Amino acid sequence: MNAPDNVVPVLLEKVYDLIKSKVDDIQQPLVEVFAKSLLNQLADDDLFQRNESDLYGAVLSLWHHLVKNDPQQISVRVYNPTLSQHGWKSTHTVVEIVMPDKPFLVDSVRMTLNRLGLTSHLMLNGPYCFERDKNNNIVTACGLKGNLQTLFHIEVDRLTKKNEMQLIHDELDTVLRDIDLVVHDWEPMKNKMQQIKTSLKTTSLPINKNYCEEAIEFLDWLLNHNFTFMGYHCYDLLAVKGDYKLSLISKLGSGF
Fold first, then answer.
1. What's the domain count of the chain?
2. Is residue 1 in some structural domain?
3. Among 54, 163, 186, 189, which is most exposed with the fewest C-beta within 10 angstroms?
4. Would you tell me how many other CB atoms lie within 10 Å of the CB of residue 72?
5. Across-strand partners of 237?
6. Coil, strand, or helix at residue 129?
7. Residue ranges of the alpha helices (H) in the chain?
8. How far is CA 236 from the centre of its chain?
9. How far apart are CA 256 and CA 252, in angstroms?
10. CA torsion sign, 191 to 197 to 198 to 204?
């Protein structure tokens, strides 16, 4: 069922009015811009089931999470908001993520929640720029300047056990850190493959030349945006008791 047309702007205007009346003068315009960017994603049905106090609380909670977090750090929070402790409530467990923007984030978060058997009832997310001063205070929000960060507000099936909530936190944190590692090391891994391909052209190897040319063509194909580099490791081939084994050279790895 869709909400009546006039419900959508009225409810959101009430949220923005709460921001104007409750947030301090310095942060108020920043929070309002942020709220409009975030809540603009809400479908009519989502708005129809909510009230302005809880939407205001959700926005302010994510904002405070953003403010306290270092722009280069990954931060995951999983909690059940209550009126007494957080000033707003939800029938769902809430997941907040604040981190530097990277590729693959949305799909990876969705896949992780699905793997854990959780239904995402609401997901608000996006990459937004936040400019900070020398004291790390945010001075502009959702503009063109500053650190590009991706934020998530997700509402999943309500959980009541601390170990279940900790599991969600740990799984998401691990996945997001793996993404950060892979994205950071992507260029070095690609360059390493380019070096290997070049060495195949100039190194004399005890194999048929056709095999070597086929390997070079395959590496060319991989380098032409046909492969996602997740990790690179280097091994020594060592002779042992009439056989051979691969021995990892730990200092020469990238990714994970």
1. 2
2. no
3. 163
4. 10
5. 246
6. strand
7. 7-22, 28-39, 44-48, 52-68, 83-86, 105-115, 162-202, 209-223
8. 35
9. 12
10. positive
Pair 204, 140 in one domain:
no
Q: Any idea which of 107-111, 177-181, 201-205 has the lowest mean pLDDT?
A: 201-205
78, 149: one domain: yes
The residue-averaged pLDDT of 218-242 equals 86
Distance CA 6, CA 159 (A): 34
Quote the pTM value. Answer: 0.80
156 is in which domain, residue-wise? 7-160
**CB burial of residue 148 (10 Å; 0-12, 13-18, 19+):** middle
> What 3-state class would DSSP assign to 104?
coil
3-class DSSP state for residue 242? coil
- Write out the two tokens for 224: 């032409």
Asked if pLDDT for residue 19 goes beyond 90, the answer is yes
**Helical ranges in 203-224 per DSSP H:** 209-223
The distance between the two most distant Cα atoms of the chain, rounded to a whole number of Å, is 80
User: If you count them, how many residues does the chain have?
Assistant: 256
Q: What is the mean predicted confidence (pLDDT) over 53-73? A: 96
Give yes or no: residues 44 and 143 share one domain: yes
**String of DSSP letters for 150-201:** EEEEEEES----HHHHHHHHHHHHHHHHHHHHHHHHHHHHHHHHHHHHHHHH
